[in-house]
């Protein structure tokens, strides 16, 4: 059996150095993931993180688990977090070199929107998770756009440039599309980045210098703090975390 880390400890692992300003959007994502992730799972104590990159989120979420990190980029195997207890495998999410029913949890955090054959990737995730296990994902909604506020456009790169840089092949998903990918409705869902917190996200990826960013963060902080504290799993957001149980 593996247990989920307490929320505070999980959030403290935010890989962004300024987790309450530039990295607030990532903190919001982590909170949503924590909300949908099962508190504990039986089985093998194994977690597969598909497309984990350098974040090591699965290791933070389930610190006692045996973690396998899979990514199509072999260079990422040399840049895993030093504290992450994981085995790296170079592989394709659409053809996992792994046995059926061999993991308790499979994670795909900000992954599906980068994969052309997303249906195949979803079915592969379901194949390798054991009966009763979970598939956890996070992804942008179809209404995601950047910047969120039009007044920020003059200070921000065009969203198409960001999507190219990030390797997106689609903007995001509506819930029915994900239900079709996984052949079932999710057991849990939790949104993140609402209209009150989106300004920090706009500033984070803007071309504004550090000093001016600090001023903008300070001015927007009261509204952003309220928006963060009041956000519930069902609050309207631009991105969402989901959990499917096999």
UniProtKB/TrEMBL annotation:
One of its GO terms (biological process) is methylation. InterPro entries: Methyltransf_11, SAM-dependent_MTases_sf. Keywords: Methyltransferase, Transferase. SUPFAM superfamilies: S-adenosyl-L-methionine-dependent methyltransferases (SSF53335). Residues 48-137 form the Methyltransferase type domain. It holds the Pfam family Methyltransf_11. GO terms for molecular function: S-adenosylmethionine-dependent methyltransferase activity. This is SAM-dependent methyltransferase. It comes from Rhizobium paranaense.
């Amino acid at each position: 059996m593996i247990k989920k880390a307490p929320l505070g400890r999980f959030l403290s692992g935010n890989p962004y150095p300024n987790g309450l300003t530039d990295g607030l959007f990532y903190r919001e994502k982590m909170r949503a993931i924590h909300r949908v992730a099962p508190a504990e799972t039986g089985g093998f104590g194994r977690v597969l993180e598909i497309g984990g990159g350098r974040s090591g989120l699965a290791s933070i979420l389930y610190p006692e688990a045996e973690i396998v990190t899979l990514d199509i980029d072999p260079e990422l195997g040399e840049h895993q977090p030093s504290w992450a207890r994981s085995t790296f495998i170079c592989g394709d999410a659409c053809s996992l070199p792994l046995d059926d029913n061999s993991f308790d949890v499979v994670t795909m955090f900000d992954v599906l929107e980068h994969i052309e054959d997303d249906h195949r990737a979803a079915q592969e995730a379901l194949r390798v998770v054991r009966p009763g296990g979970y598939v956890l994902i996070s992804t942008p909604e179809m209404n995601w756009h950047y910047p969120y506020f039009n007044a920020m456009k003059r200070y921000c790169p065009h969203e198409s440039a960001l999507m190219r840089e990030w390797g997106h092949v689609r903007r995001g998903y509506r819930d029915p599309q994900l239900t079709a990918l996984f052949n079932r409705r999710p057991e849990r869902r939790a949104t993140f980045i609402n209209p009150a917190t989106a300004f920090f996200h706009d500033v984070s990826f803007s071309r504004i210098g550090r000093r001016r960013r600090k001023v903008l963060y300070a001015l927007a902080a009261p509204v952003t703090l309220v928006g963060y504290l009041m956000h519930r799993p069902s609050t309207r957001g631009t991105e969402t975390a989901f959990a499917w149980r096999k």
